[in-house]
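We include the pair:
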Amino acid sequence: LPPGSCRAFWGWLNAVFNKVDHERIQAVGPDRAASEWLLRCGALVRYQGSPKWQQDYNGLPTGPLGKYKIEAINATESCIMYRGFDYLDGLEHVTDIKLDKCMYIQDECLQRLSETSNLQKSLRQLKIISCGNVTDKGILALHKLTNLEYLYLSDLPGIREKEKTFCVLQQALPNLELELDLE
C-alpha cells in the first residue's frame, strides 16, 4: 500500500459511519437512529431507567417507537465527528456526555453540541478528555449549555489561554462546577 493510503481509507470509512440518514431518523425515531450511529462509531449509550451501557449494535433493544430514550453517551475512543452531529438534534433526555480520546472531535463539534436546543435544556454533565483538536474556541462555545452543572476538562493541549477561557466560561455559567486537569 502507498504511504498514507491506510489513513485515507479510515478517514473515508469514518465519513461513511458519520453520514446522517434523515429518512432513518424519521422511520425509527431520533433515539434509535442516534443509538445506531453512536454504536457504529464505537460509542456507548445508556437509556433512561437502565444502569447498563449498550455497546452491541446487534443487541439494540426493540420495542415500540420511542420507548428507549438515550440518557448518556460515552464516546471514548469513538470515531464520531461533526458530520454525524445532526443525529443529536432530536435527543431530549441526554444528561451526560463523555468525549474521551476522540480524534475527530474539534471546536466545531463543541459549537454544534452547544447549539443543539434539546441539549441546551437536558445536558447536565460533560467530560472532554484527550481530544487534541479542541482549543479555547471550542470550550468557549459551551457557554450556550445553560443547564450544564459539571464540566470536566483534561489533557487538552489545544487550550492555550486557560485562565481567560475559564473565567469567561465561569461568568457565562455561574452555577457550573468546573474541574480541570490541564497541566
User: Anything to note?
Assistant: The longest strand covers residues 70-74. The domain at 4-56+67-181 is CATH 3.80.10.10 (Leucine-rich repeat, LRR (right-handed beta-alpha superhelix)). Helices lie at 5-17, 22-28, 30-40, 107-115, 117-122, 136-141, 162-172.
